Amino acid sequence: MTKQDRGGFKNYMRNSQLEGSSDDELDDVSVDYSQVFPDFAPSQLARLSVRDMMRESQTTSSSTGETSHDGTTDLTDGKSSSSVSDDSGRNNVWSAMTKRAQTTSETKKESQSDIFSEDYVEQKAASKSIFAGLFSRMYEDFRHYLHTAAKYPYILIYTLVVFTVLLTAALFVLESIYKAELNNLRDTARMEALESGNSIAEILAKALIPLRSLQQAIIHSSYFQHLPHQIKQRPMISGENSKEGVLDYRNVTGLCDDHNLMKEFSEIVQGINKNFGFDEHRIFNYRLAPYGVHCFSEPLVNTHVFNTSDHHTTSHDDHEGDHDDMPEHVHRHLMTGMNDHDEMDMNEDKEQVFDTRGDIGWDPIFSEDPLVLETLADVYREENDLVIMGPEAMHGKEVFVAYLAVNFEGYNYTAFGKPTNAFGFVMHYIDWTQMLYDNNIFKKMSDKRLHFELTQPSHEHMDGTYHDHQVVIATNLDKAELMNHTNMDDHVHEINKALSATVEIATPVGKWTMVVALEKDPRSSIILTRIICVVGCLFFSMLFAVVLVERQLHKLLLYKIMPANIIQKLNKNETVVERYRLVSVFFSDIVGFTSLAGEMSPLQVMRMLNELYSEFDKIVEKHGVYKVETIGDAYMVVGGAPEKIPAPEAAQKVALFALELMEFVKNFRTSNGDRIYIRAGIASGPVVAGVVGKSMPRYCFFGDTVNSASRMESTSQTSRIQCMDLTYRLLQDAPSFLFHLEERVEGGQKGITLKGKGMTHTWWLNGVSGLRVSTECVEKNCEKCGNNHEIVPSATSDAIIQSIALSRQDWKRIGMPDNSLVAATGHNQVMIDRVTAILQHRLSIAMEQRGQDSMTSKQKQQLRLYVSEIAFMYKNVKFHNFEHCLHVTTSMHKVIDTIVGSIESGKVGNGSICQELWQNAFTHFVMVFGCLIHDVEHTGQSNQILAAKRHRVSKRYPGPSAERNSIYISLDLLHNRRFNALRKAIFPSTEDRFKFGKCIFWAVLGTDIASPETARNVISRFDVVHNVRKSIEKKRRLPIDEPYDYDPALCPVGPYVNDFQKYNHITKSDIKSHPTELVIDQQGLEYCVAVEHLMQLCDVSHLMQGWENFLKFNFRLYKELMDCHRNGTLSNPSSNWAIGQIGFFNNYVIPLAKRVEKICGSDVASLQFSTNATANVTRWEREGDLITEIFVAGYESGEAEAIILKRCLENENAEFSA
Predict the structure, then answer these.
(1) Count of other CB atoms within 10 angstroms of residue 334
(2) Which of 588, 811, 848 is nearest to 718 (CA)?
(3) To 10 degrees, what angle do helices 1012-1030 and 1082-1099 make?
(4) Which of 227, 559, 681, 1118 minimizes the number of CB atoms within 10 Å of its CB?
(5) What angle do CA 557, 561, 562 make, to 5 degrees?
(6) What Å distances lie between residue 376 and 369, 380, 471, 1114, CA to CA?
(7) Beta strand pairing status for 738-743 and 745-746?
(8) H or E stretch including 953?
(9) Alpha helices, DSSP H only, in 65-152?
(10) What are the backbone angles phi and psi of residue 766, rounded to the nearest 5°?
(11) Taking a C-beta distance cutoff of 8 angstroms, is the pair 1192, 1122 a contact?
């Protein structure tokens, strides 16, 4: 409703005297809206009501401050106006957004009115295509899915694997179906081959029976018995078919043309045909050859079998149409092949006839054709068996010619020089083509979509020699002419062996081969099926990919709601409760939000918070902190959970996040160009985290730390960050940055009053800068400069300079405040930097000695991170803490540097047990590394106490429990993937891994000095090595590299070989490929003795250094044991403390110092181990009782260590670091 519309409506209501009416009265009023709003559409007028219009008119008037007709202005009270700006008078974003909503132009309101009208919505909806919208949505979804799949390669890999598996399985099934079908078809082809082949063989055998019947008829007939003797007497002549000059005919005139004999022969043949059901189409000619001379032929002239006009329409009803089933190409083949030598002639009607008159009188024994002579030789053999020739192409047909000798007593015929009792022979011509059609083989094969080839072996005389090969005698393949004797090999490519079946058929003429093949490979019928399978597999793979993408998107969404490990526990239906010892919690809220949210629409609030917190989330990801939740305008973040990291590092991350957040808010403007202000608070301490509820679960943090962080935020000031005192101390130990913190002072009083906590000391976090170091002073309350400050590590300090400075300090004064680089300090980051510098220096030398490249920045970063994490694993006990670790590490560094310096100067100590060790830089690094880790997670209790208490460490690691636990924790951390680059620098080869592991075990296990067994074994190994070395050097009886019979119990790693393999990630194959690595030899024992003795020495090095160091660490050890006494795990050590120290010096420390001096020779003479120890025990004998009393009184009163130590040295001018 525009301003003009509201004015018109108000005038109408005033004129109608309806102003001030109740809602019920307004509902009963009927108004003609067309008079009030003449420009409104009917559909708009239908939705108007008097009550709604009255409310809108009143609301709009009050919000915009319109002037009424009586001259008064409707304004909001001053309270609302003042709430939209802060104390400084700057316009707040909420007031700006409220004013903007109230002062929108009339034109914009009119357009908005139009936009939200039903007519407009309907028009817009109608104007958009449903299909276009659907396509656009699908396209966006596709792009999103494709982007997700590309971002997470496992989706594409899994999809490809699924597609491959599905396609392989589908193709395997199809191939199995194909093979099964192929086998069935081949079985069908085999059965068809057997059936058709046997049928053909039977027809052929049946066609030979009439010839035997003719033989017997001639034998038993008296009409023809005189013919051989008479023909034998007839002279030889040249016939009409004879070659020039060749006499191969006999003059049989009067014999073979005798009408009675011809009639008798014809009647015999016709009777036989009739008896066996043959006609002139099947057996189209019979012949009788007395004395081997062709004499009688029935029929003499056959005018039916070769008549092409009669070929397809035989006069016999039972065969009518048989040839119609013959394939065209076979018919074409059979109707060709006429030649000049065939017995073919034309009758008067120009029809083809089979005329045998020219053969009457022919005596084939005189033929020059070797095939004819060979055939006759077969006919006259003693076996008197059938001789069958063919099939041969004859006038468009395939013809078999069968010969059968007629033998009986009384006849004498000499053939080929061999006498026989043959009368002669009979023969007949079989129409092989007609026999095939009688078998109906072409139709059967065609109906079953089969190809076939019927072949017989042939022994042909060619080029003067005989050749054996297979001749095709029947086929339905469209290949060469069937009547030609085509070799089987010509048809091999026509028949796929894999698709065919071959059988042998026994026939009267020998074994024939029938090959029946599938006309079409069934594989071709499944091509479409294969394509469908591929498409189907692709489709299901895409569905699988969609499922993976959806799952990944679901996981990403879940991981934004709560951590991955929490989700895994929820999936297992586990209760999620986690405790965090020390985290930092951040809270922030928007200044003035609570009072202003009610003056804005919910949509405006939501948009505002979304813009702001979306940017906050980016900063969260940048600094690696965990966003817990947003409640209204409150934003909560945690550092150190759910991923556990050292507390100073967690506080550093949260502080950096908070500072960048404040900096961002200063420059942040909303889409409307407005600015906001926030305040924040940080608290550190323990928390408990867990998932609350089953429906709509949330990962929440609980505990006093969360409440304190909320209090820090609520009592903070605009654009400032307030933190608790513990957070301040953690930030002082921040690993990488120097934070600028200012103590909060209100009205001259430090701290503020918090609800439920009273007066609390808090700090303002003002900023951060790069690391710096103060080289002027190393103590708080320094007497020289009067400053009250702490040492701050320097990111730019050189590790080599730091390492050299530590190694150059006098042995007796290690840790004394000679300068800022060596002074003992409780500042954790300083200690971490020093240990890191020593390790980095030693590792760099080792890598150079092994020919490796220099340490990369990544390897240096990982080394410092590793040392930092190890440092925070040390417990806050009095003696076995990280400060003692630094002292031990520095002492080892000093000893190694002293020995190496002696060797480099050419002053190699005489009597040194293991000179090679001191030249191995990698061993030096591992010895220092062992000092770093040797007391990790030490509880301040001895192994005996742990065993008595049945502590979890003692249960898991019997024997040297604390030492084995330290090795496991340290090496397990080292093999974390975060330190891959560091491991490559430390042990690039398997040999280095073995050396590293052995040296670590020797060093750390040897520090269990409270164990009598450990002490005995250490001394036993020393005695063996020392005696063998003396024998080698003096008598030269045994070279060092030769074997020696050592007791296996001497190996310190032996009882823990499984731990050795597991902790160092050494496989069985590694041990097999390096069989000598765990073998005891002289050099290995010397290395072991040197490492464990130096480790033991450095572990108690304070006893062999200056009196000040001895007192400091002795008092710390006393306090640690007194803590055990208070816990009820140890009797009071005070009564025997003075005398006990003397016994420890005399029985352990001084003998150890002397053994080390024997091992190292004069190389360590300058360090005076035994001399210093003797001096300390001598002085303790004088002052020990008094000092013990001071220790007891100081512990009971809880006085500061520096005060107690100064009291012990009140007559001495000694320096101590507070």
Answers:
(1) 22
(2) 588
(3) 130
(4) 559
(5) 115
(6) 11, 6, 22, 132
(7) unpaired
(8) helix 952-956
(9) 78-83, 93-102, 106-115, 118-127, 130-151
(10) -100, -25
(11) no
- For the chain, the C-alpha Rg in angstroms (whole number) is 58
Find tokens 């020699």 and name the residue: 465
Q: Shortest CA distance to 1205 belongs to which of 1103, 1104, 1107, 1112?
A: 1112
Distance CA 371, CA 823 (A): 124
- Three-class DSSP category at 827: coil
Structure tokens of 317? 């009803």
Letter string b/e over residues 503-531, b meaning 16 or more CB atoms within 10 A of that residue's CB: bebebbbeebbbbbbbeeeebeebeeebe
- Whether residue 334 contacts residue 433, with contact meaning beta carbons closer than 8 Å, is answered with yes
Work out whether strand 762-769 and strand 721-724 pair parallel, antiparallel, or are unpaired. antiparallel
List residues bridging with 85 in a β-sheet. Answer: 91
Q: How far is Cα 497 from Cα 767, in angstroms, rounded to an integer?
A: 88
Written as one letter, the residue type at 932 is L
Q: Which amino acid is at 1204?
A: I
CB neighbours of 869 closer than 8 A, spacing ≥ 6? 646, 973
Q: How far is CA 346 from CA 77, 302, 307, 343, 1103, in A?
A: 138, 11, 10, 10, 140
Q: Starting at the edge strand that comes first in sequence, how are the strands of the sheet with 510-518 ordered?
A: 465-475, 450-462, 510-518, 500-507
Distance, CA of 1099 to CA of 618 (rounded, Å): 48
Question: Do 823 and 776 touch, CB atoms closer than 8 A?
Answer: no
CA atoms within 13 A on the CB side of 870: 34
Residues 962, 938: contact at Cβ < 8 Å? yes
| Pairing state between β 745-746 and 450-462 | unpaired
List of residues 6+ apart from 22 with CB closer than 8 A: none
The DSSP line for 840-894 is: HHHHHHHHHHTTPPPPPHHHHHHHHHHHHHHHHHS---SSSSHHHHHHHHHHHHH
Burial label, 1106 (beta-carbon count in 10 A; 0-12, 13-18, 19+) = buried
> What pLDDT, on the 0 to 100 scale, is given for residue 971?
95
Exposure string over 984-994, b if 16+ CB within 10 A, otherwise e = ebbbeebeebb
Tell me, what amino acid is at 344? M
Which pair of structure tokens corresponds to residue 235?
């002279």
DSSP class of residue 597 equals G
pLDDT for 1115 equals: 94
Name residue 356's amino acid: T
**Amino acid identity for residue 244 in this structure:** E
Report the b/e string of 431-447 with b at 16+ CB within 10 A: bbbbbbbbbebbebbee
DSSP summary character for residue 1036: -
3-state secondary structure of 701: strand
Q: What is the 3-state secondary structure (H, E, C) of 707-738?
A: HHHHHHHHCCCCCCEEEEHHHHHHHHCCCCCE
Q: Is the dihedral of CA 806, 807, 813, 819 positive or negative?
A: negative
Segments in the chain below pLDDT 70? 1-129, 304-352, 382-384, 395-396, 459-467, 478-498, 595-596, 670-674, 770-798, 904-916, 1032-1046, 1162-1163, 1211-1218
How far apart CA 829 and CA 452 sit, in angstroms, is 94
Q: Tens digits of per-residue pLDDT, 950-997?
A: 898 999 999 899 999 999 999 999 999 999 999 999 999 999 999 999
Query: What distance in Å separates the CA atoms of residue 403 and residue 384, rounded to the nearest whole number?
Result: 10
Q: Which residue has the tokens 């030398």?
A: 845
Burial label for 1073, CB within 10 Å (0-12, 13-18, 19+), is exposed
pLDDT for 41 equals: 52
Q: Where are the alpha helices (DSSP H) in 573-732?
A: 593-596, 602-623, 647-667, 704-714, 725-732
3-state SS track over 392-460: EEECCEEEEEEEEEEECCCCCEEECCEEECEEEEEEEEEEHHHHHHHHCHHHHHHHCCEEEEEEEEEEE
